[in-house]
Specification:
Layout lengths: L1 H4 L2 E4 L2 H5 L7 E6 L18 H18 E11 L1 H11 L4 E9 L13 E8 L10 E2 L32 E2 L20 H11 L5 E4 L6 H8 L3 E6 L2 H12 L6 E2 L2 E2 L1 E3 L2 E6 L3 H4 L3 E2 L13 E2 L3 H20 L1
Parallel strand pairs: 1-9, 2-3, 2-8, 4-7, 8-9
Antiparallel strand pairs: 3-5, 4-5, 6-13, 10-11, 12-13, 14-15
Helix pairs in contact: 3-4, 5-6
Length: 322
């Protein structure tokens, strides 16, 4: 049954589809469900009574955990309000690993603190078998002078050339705000956010399943990084947009044998275990302290040309889908 769904986007109810997927057959499941905030989805009313909404969430959460492998992971993206309920449900059937705080400020809502992050719950089936890779992101620098923003004090000789290990607070990935880069969807996530999750928790050819695929962020990330995928959505328009976008994607976001995430032609996420191989493709100062003011850069080559072509294809596709 799972072969029927592989590398496909299914128009159907996610709970109905997941019930046909065998136990422990998916490497990671990722969900970005409706927030129940009366947002304007194309074919879905995003406003239910809280108890009805949470009962529905309980159903798809149980299915996600059931179909995830012992080596795999479950990721849920939402606002903190609902994640607290999800955590209570998941704590009974899975093991908590992290609450990732994605720094993505929103507008003040009045009589409350300004919302400044979305959360991504990270749960596993078996902590001893769980597949996990440490990942790195580029050093943060002053936009004008290029100097490192963080003061590493007397530890600069030990700086990693590419950048630090990622923590559970992600401040380097920004929301998609410009309409030029958005699909007709109220909650579109940046692809490199999902690429980070995929690199952190899967290997090549692993299966990524998204029960609320929307306009395809998760499956696009999976395909770019050489993973297999299953996307599900109840809205025909979103499914069509995702399928069209997938036609423009190639599984080529890599250098040699190392998969890597790019944004605006720059590498933004790498796996630490790949650095020995990747370092041969970067210009690195001889003196490690020079990294303070000299950015480690990727040599020009096929991967950058491919990335530029890919960006142009995506811009053309956005005009088509709109």
């Amino acid at each position: 049954m799972i072969k029927k769904y592989l590398n496909n986007v299914i128009l159907d109810d996610c709970i109905a589809v997941m019930k046909h997927i065998p136990d422990e057959s998916i490497d990671i499941t990722f969900a970005d469900p409706p927030f129940n905030l009366n947002k304007k989805y194309n074919g879905y009313k995003d406003k239910k009574e809280d108890n009805i909404y949470l009962d529905w969430c309980n159903q798809w959460l149980n299915e996600m955990v059931r179909i995830t492998k012992p080596t795999g992971a479950i990721f849920i993206h939402n606002i903190p309000k609902w994640l607290t309920y999800y955590a209570a449900l998941l704590n009974r059937i899975a093991i908590f690993k992290h609450w990732i705080a994605w720094d993505a400020p929103t507008s003040p809502m009045g009589k409350s603190l300004q919302p400044s992050h979305y959360g991504i719950l990270y749960y596993v089936k078996n902590p001893k078998e769980n597949k996990f890779y440490e990942i790195r992101y580029p050093h943060k620098r002053c936009r004008k002078c290029g100097y490192l923003l963080k003061d590493y004090g007397g530890k600069k000789d030990g700086l990693h050339p590419f950048g630090p290990l990622v923590s559970d607070t992600w401040t380097d990935i920004h929301r998609i705000k410009h309409n030029k880069y958005r699909d007709e969807h109220p909650c579109q996530l940046p692809v490199h956010l999902l690429e980070r999750i995929v690199l952190m928790s899967t290997d090549e050819n692993d299966i990524v399943l998204d029960p609320f695929v929307g306009t395809g962020t998760s499956v696009l990330a999976a395909k770019r990084l050489g993973r297999r995928f299953i996307g599900i959505d109840i809205d025909e328009k979103y499914v069509d947009i995702t399928k069209n976008k997938l036609n423009y994607e190639n599984s080529d976001s890599k250098i040699d044998n190392s998969w890597i995430s790019f944004y605006l032609n720059e590498p933004v996420t790498i796996r630490d275990v790949d650095w020995e191989n990747l370092s041969n493709h970067f210009s690195i100062p001889e003196n490690n302290r020079d990294i303070d003011f000299v950015k480690v850069s990727l040599y020009f080559g096929n991967i950058k040309k491919s990335c530029k072509n890919h960006n142009r294809q995506q811009e053309d596709l956005l005009l088509i889908t709109k």
